[in-house]
Amino acid sequence: MSEEIQKPPYQTVKGVHDILPKDHEYYTFIKKVVRHRCRQAGFRRITTPVFEFTDVFKRSVGDSSDIVNKEMYTFEDKKGRSLTLKPEGTAGVVRSYIQHGMSNWPQPVELYYIEPFFRYDKPQKGRYRQFHQFGYEIIGESDPALDAQIIYLSNKILEDLGIDQLFTLQINTIGSAEDRERYAAAIKDYYYDKERYLDEDDKRRLENNPLRILDSKNEDTMILNQSAPKLIDYLSEESKQYYQELKECLEELDIEYQENSLLVRGLDYYSMTVFEFWDKTEGAQNAIGGGGRYDGLIELMGGQPTPACGFAAGMERIIAHMKREKVRVPQKDDLHVFVAQLGVEAKKKCLPLIVELRDKGIRTMGALGKGAIKTQLKLADKFKVPYTVLIGLTEVREGTAIIRDMKVGTQKTVPFDEVAENIMELIGEENLDTYSPGELVY
Length: 442
Ligand code: HAM
What we know:
Helices cover 37% and strands 19% of the residues. It is α+β, with helices and mostly antiparallel strands. The strands form three sheets. The protein has an eight-stranded mixed β-sheet with strand order 1-5-6-11-10-9-7-8, sandwiched between helices. Residues 88-90, 119, 121, 126-128, 131, 133, 135, 137, 266-267, 287-292, 310-314, 316-317 line the site of histidyl-adenosine monophosphate (HAM).
């Protein structure tokens, strides 16, 4: 009789995932690269709370964005306050910049983050309800050279992760608030007698933030957009000059880009520079990251007028690309040694030995259960360790230990005090997992 396979009673919620050890190797590696490159460029890390007052996102990301309209995890707390799990990082960082008076810090303030975010998106490939981004913001100065530096940093990180060749950098300028006002009037005019071709989303966009209609995925609208007025024709000389300088800075840094006049980004806070890294084969569908300038946001959120620029990338999408490209990250979790023992006395001797091995940077697992040596050796095989240390009654009596090479099957007996030294030699100093928390200063 075939046994029916029972589904476990509890599963993850749709659109969210456990990160199992194998995938953590990728997350850890990406975090390491991001921390390293950000630190080199003078950024300091910030973590804002997982939830904020809903208005923080409504006001910043904007009422016309899909994020605010459809994708926020919003709930009331016990006192009836409306709170939202953060769907993106910029709003919280800006709130924090204002709340902590960071305008009094040396400017610009450069901050980076690596965090989980939450969007009630339709789960599909590369689109989850809990996902992770790394991102960074430069707040307090406006200069095309800063935008170029953010782009350079993003490109550098993708290069370090071995996937930069898979993307094209798309850039555009959406001009200043005044430019956009003029343009909004023109595009509304253009769509005046064409509204019947628009779906509900696009009608809403046209009403609330006409620029966003350029980002429509509706085929009819996409065709109409091709003959719509072009934003570039509504830019002031100053905005044009800014964009020109950005392109020159990118050229100076040897960064290839494609100009894309339809790129407007899905969040309302942008002004001037916008950019995205697109998958060469899938285009906008699977952007790995995006960002831009948001000069009006800090004032909109209650601070002094302060220019700013930033970027964020999706870590799940990056990992999917790394796997597709067969990019392997350094393995840091593999064990070096398994310590097997037999008898109460042997077990006691093993405890300080395990501690010593670990302290010396040897990744060690101790089988301190009661199984027979043979069972323990089988276990060592399953953990794929290169070496096993065996201590039985004889070894305890003689003050020795056996070191077994698990691949070849040979073994040798060494004095108990020299086990660590022998193992270190076998695995090589360069492979030791030594750790120093850094010097503490009191
Ligand atoms: P965003 O374009 O909304 O920008 O998100 C950045 C990246 O996060 C996307 O390109 C994508 O890789 C990833 N992402 C977004 N939603 C999902 C999802 N549902 N599942 C998986 N990955 C996702 C921002 O969030 C802005 N805050 C970026 C920024 C920083 N602009 C200025 N500073």
